[in-house]
Amino acid sequence: MSQALQQLINGLTLGAVYGLIAIGYTMVYGIIGMINFAHGDIYMVSAFIAVTCFTLLASSGISSVVASIAITLIVSIALTSVFGWTVERVGYRPLRGSNRLAPLISSIGISIFLQNMVQLTQGARVKSIPPMVTGGVSLFGGEGFHGPYVSYVQLLIVAVTILLMIAFTLFINKTAFGRQQRACEQDQRMMQFLGYNVDRIIALTFMIGAALAAVAGVMVTLYYGVIDFSIGFEAGIKAFTAAVLGGIGSIPGAMLGGVIIGLIEAFWSAYLSPEYKDVATFVILIVVLMFRPSGLLGRPEVEKV
Amino acid sequence: MSSTATQEMNLHFRVRDALGAAVVAGLVGLPMLGLTTRDGANGLEVQTRWALLGAFIVIAFAGRITLQMLLQRFHLFSKRRLRARPVPEVTGNGSLVWAGAACVAFAVLLPALFAGNRYVVDTATTVLIYVMLGWGLNVVVGLAGLLDLGYVAFYAVGAYTYGLLSTHFGLGFWQCLPIAGGLAATFGVVLGYPTLRLRGDYLAIVTLGFGEIIRLVLVNWGDVTGGPNGISSIPKPTFFGLPMQAPGEGPTFASVFGLDYSPGQRVVFLYYLILVLALLTNLLVSRLRRLPVGRAWEAVREDEIACKAMGINVTNVKLSAFATGAMLAGFGGVFFAARQGFISPESFTFSESATILAIVVLGGMGSQLGVVLAASLLVILPELGRDFSEYRMLLFGVAMVFIMIVRPGGLISHRRATVSVPGVEAKP
User: Fold this and answer.
1) ipTM above 0.90, yes or no
2) Which helix (DSSP H) or strand (DSSP E) does residue A7 occupy?
3) Beta strand pairing status for A127-128 and A226-227?
């Protein structure tokens, strides 16, 4: 029982991170219908920015953990969204209106570029930072009974993710930009007729996706403390799987998919075989799609002639 | 407005635009070029490289201005803004046929032209493996319009089939070729049957997942597959039963034909073997395209609903494309295993699938000759870059983006249906 609860907590933490990255995939897919393979690498770049920022803050004598995390979050979000914008501007905007696979190949190219760029400029070796948030609480701990242990980092990750999700949902549902973004998903040409700058809305969508990935990057840096240039690929595939599982194009679906995949991974590693946890993830994805071809929360698309 | 005023406005606009580019370059460059972390005495230390960052910003500024001027000079700018470019027109089929014939002639003569240059023939063999895989994937992506991101799984099935059957049961290359092809096709059907009713991008992630499943099983099922160590000492293919090896017991290729043995013979033999396999693939695919099943592939790609209305069994059509593509990948895998003599899951990662897909899309989906061009480009480009190997993959990524932007329809666009009713204009 205790172990199950422990895995639940670990899985939720992992799922929160996947969910944050998955939103970037799902939003981009929703608005321009492309799989952005470079998104995982944007997340990786944000983790490197976080490491640099943490190190810089530590050496400049800022000892407050809260201030340090807050500053790093802001810096990482700001710089990573510039990355998101640049990638869209350079790699995808010139391809708007061409065939469906051209931006896909372009995004694979950008993904290769980003990985090698980081490897060249930041070094191929693993970067590690000392743990910043230490300690935790043991739930229902008592005499002779060890309850599940929740570290403060896990609490922080889940709390930040929930807060961000609420803010983000309000942002998409209530603000003018959120309305424009949703309208663009439905009919870009009509938006152009109405005088909106569709390119700008798409660029902002990429920036928001990158910003959420940046939060995930900072959180992972805090959680594991170890990053390298290849972390983007695996996280990207998992997050994309999460987005598809939840129903691509659906923002709550992405979050749900992320949590489900985090839980599958945690429980499968603990109870069955850690080697096959990724196999389990993909098998469950295939099984779900067999019965719900549009994902869990996706709307089935009606094709009209 | 006088022309000088326009020019001034233009200059003003350009400088502002380039300043914007410089600011973005600064923001992007700061955490990557300007700052870096190195292992220091106690943990990481931040190093600054302001000169590098400054140079990058200046390059971005100058580059942007130059690009603007070039675009304006050649009037590329305004056209692109106005509307999406149509897919470039197909060049006349006649010239393509001649180009194809020239390619085949060159390929046949290549070992003679570069006699004794083992490196060239080896690289050409690699190109041909990718050409064959590209033609196989072309059936799935280019003709049937199904996005397959896990094509390498079938390649792996072929390679491991030969690796296991030859090392455990002593089966030869030629016996394994049909077995592996059939097995890979079966895998294709097994994967395809439940998933082919998914829409394009859902299918993409499922195939990607399938590719990863196969790779992970290969890594973790150590008892059978050898795990991460793979399978080694896989026998080489024989020439009608005659092995290509130094004279020893039994007849060898060299002894039967009265030649002096040289290791180069095997390289050339392998080259011709893959050339024959690739040409057979090409023949098969171009014949299939004209058969009802091939026409159905292209029809399903263009309009699935219309196909259903016409009474075509869409699932079977897609399955046949999937199985054909998988079978060809299986053949390619057998050759790969035989040529390398060693296989491990390392060779069957997602990046391999991405490379093959890139070959198909860069070549121009559906175009056979385009695949040859793109495969040569993608194999030779990194080879040329060996001298500055650090930047090789970086430039490879840039090249992929660049080619897509310049020619989004691929190097040779060919999306017209293979068969069309005379007198009726085919839909582009």
Assistant:
1) no
2) helix A2-32
3) antiparallel
Residue B84 confidence class, pLDDT cut points 50, 70, 90: very low
Indicate whether A300 pLDDT > 90.
no
pTM of the full structure: 0.83
- Is B202 close to A294, i.e. CB distance below 8 A? yes
Angstrom distance (rounded) from CA A288 to CA B199: 14
Chain B nearest CA to A45, separation (Å): 9
- Token output for B48: 């600054």
| Touching B: A residues 113-142, CB under 8 Å | 113-118, 120-123, 125, 127-130
Report the CATH architecture of B95-406.
Orthogonal Bundle (1.10)
Q: Please name which of A129, A106, A134, A140 lies closest in space to residue A38, comparing C-alpha atoms.
A: A106
Q: Does A25 touch chain B (CB under 8 A)?
A: no
CA distance B199 to A247: 12
Q: Find out whether B17 and B64 touch, Cβ atoms under 8 Å.
A: yes
Q: Where are the domains of chain A?
A: 17-135+148-232
Q: Within 13 Å and on the Cβ side, how many CA atoms surround B25?
A: 19
Orientation angle between helical segments B173-195 and B314-340, nearest 10 degrees? 140
Cβ-in-10-Å burial (0-12, 13-18, 19+) of B318 comes to buried
Task: Give contacts of B 184-203 with A, CB under 8 A.
Answer: 194-195, 197-202
| Cross-chain Cβ contact B83/A56 below 8 Å | no
Q: Angle at CA B244, nearest 5°, toward B242 and B245?
A: 115
- Which pLDDT value is given to residue B355? 87
Q: Tell me how far apart the alpha carbons of residues B227 and A243 are, in angstroms, rounded to a whole number.
A: 31
Q: State phi, psi for A149 to the nearest 5 degrees.
A: -105, 125
Q: Considering only residues 71 to 90 of chain A, which have any Cβ-Cβ distance to chain B shorter than 8 Å?
A: 78-79, 82-83, 85-86, 90
Joined tokens for residue A145: 């009974």
Q: What single DSSP character describes residue A121?
A: H
| Contact indicator for B123, B267 with CB cutoff of 8 Å | no
Q: Which residue has the higher pLDDT, A145 or B349?
A: B349
Q: Of all helices (H) and strands (E), which one includes residue B245?
A: none
Chain A's closest residue to B191, CA to CA, is A286
Q: Does A181 touch chain B (CB under 8 A)?
A: no
- List, as one string, the DSSP characters of B121-164: HHHHHHHHHHHHHHHHHIIIIIIS----S-THHHHHHHHHHHHH
Q: Which ranges of B145-291 does DSSP label H, i.e. alpha helix?
A: 152-169, 173-195, 200-220, 222-225, 253-256, 263-290
Domains of chain B, residue spans: 11-82, 95-406
Backbone phi, psi, residue A133, to 5°: -105, 110
Residues 184-213 of A with CB under 8 A from B: none
